[in-house]
Amino acid sequence: MKKSTVVSVIGLLSMFVAFVLFQTWPLVLFGTVKLTDVLTLVGGLMFIIPVYLDSVKRKRADNAPNPVVWSTLPPIGMAVVCVGILMPNSLTFFHLFSLPDVFYLVGCLMMLPIFLYPMSGLERAELEETVEEEVDEAANSTAAGGKKRD
Fold it and tell me: What pTM was estimated for this model as a whole?
């Protein structure tokens, strides 16, 4: 198992612990920051950073267009989400939304290039998988039928 996978799984477990502790009483507070906030920050970053690094490595190898988009927007999005987590929920945005929720939304949208950019990458992966399956099937049918006749 790759080291990045282990780190991501530990991050997911940390976020799960934060989820379980979220409604427990009493919460451990560090000023206005709760223990669940810290666990969510650490777990979230432990989960997403290895995925981001693998994404950047793969996109560099494929020479994906617009490297500024897929290499700089996600880290900025991670920082925006972290600020949103540390912000008190009492702040509002035009008295309609909680300001931290706006930060979460914007940050998550900025992290989408990790998974969805470039769009042709998804199609290419599906096409490669289909070709590999067809080649395997052809090899198996040739081996089962013996030699081909000319």
Answer: 0.71
